[in-house]
Prior knowledge:
By secondary structure, the chain is α/β, with parallel strands linked by helices. It has 2 domains: 12-248, Spore Coat Polysaccharide Biosynthesis Protein SpsA, Chain A, CATH 3.90.550.10; 253-322. It is 48% helix and 13% strand. Strands 3-2-1-4-6-5-7 form a 7-stranded mixed β-sheet. Helix 2 links the parallel strand 1 and strand 2. Helix 2 (34-48) runs parallel beside helix 3 and helix 10 (253-280) runs antiparallel to helix 11 (289-322). The longest helix has 34 residues, at 289-322. 35% of the residues are buried.
Amino acid sequence: xxxxxxxxxxRSVEASGGKAPVDLTVVxxxxxxxxxxxxxxxxxxxxxxxxxxxxEIVAVDDxxxxxxxxxxxxxxxTEPHLRIVRLRRNFGQTAALAAGFDFARGELIxxxxxxxxxxPADIPMLLEALADEGADLVAGWRWVRRDPLLTRRLPSWVxxxxxxxVTRVKLHDYGCTMRVYRGELAKxxxxxxxxxxxxxxxxxxxxxxxxxxxxxxxxxxCGESKYGLSRTLRVxxxxxxxxxxxxxxxxxxxxxxxFGLVSTIIGVVWTAYLGFERLVFHRPLANRPxxxxxxxxxxxxxxxxxxxxxxxxxxxxxxxxxxxxxxxxRDVSG
Length: 334
């Protein structure tokens, strides 16, 4: 019997109920896409039968309320390669992708949306790019987008530029779900919050090689988009998390300590100068707000240094308690 729910992590064969691995797993997060599923599975099966790999399709129902799960059950009777993972409630796309990765048995994993805007016909091209580039992840780039300009495309362009600049991982389209991964990489990326759009940056932090290819994009025919301008703020907050985890998760003192050290030095030196003025030139300090500023800088500096030291202790506890490595090995020869 296969495990259900998301209360515990399952990996490879354990998550598959003991079934043998396959060459390719297609992971599809599903949330209220009942009208698109039949056509999607039909197109997907037609493409996968031509790729020359054993395959499975893992559809993760993320707490749908429109009958998507029932549609998947009906499709399961005609599509033997379909596996359904039903989450207990709506956890979000990041959690749905994480569940799909956990239950996937494929050596390669493809992800795409269930809204039919990603074209399954692009899968062979992405698989070929993975082999040709020797990459661990190939990300799709929606070359001609079929979305509204002001509410979807323009914010996406700005977000992609900011994310590429902050993470130093240059991609044209962080928001495209259509990607192909090596299974080992997909199962090593730790996802939570809404970090699914930052998977390429998280993968590079693990030492992965990534590539990008143009893919098709189609207009939505059924259902409603789950994205909008309201997500922009959350994207920026998640970007701060990714930047910190990628650059400073093992050395937080270099973030907080640096700021604290600069603030403390400025405060101490400035306070000394004011003291010199008071003792040598007999200038009064009681009515000068700058004195309060120097004291504030010194106190804030000490607090940030203390915060950095506490962060170092937490980082050590995090890595040592879980046996989490601080490096990633690609291969060993000899």
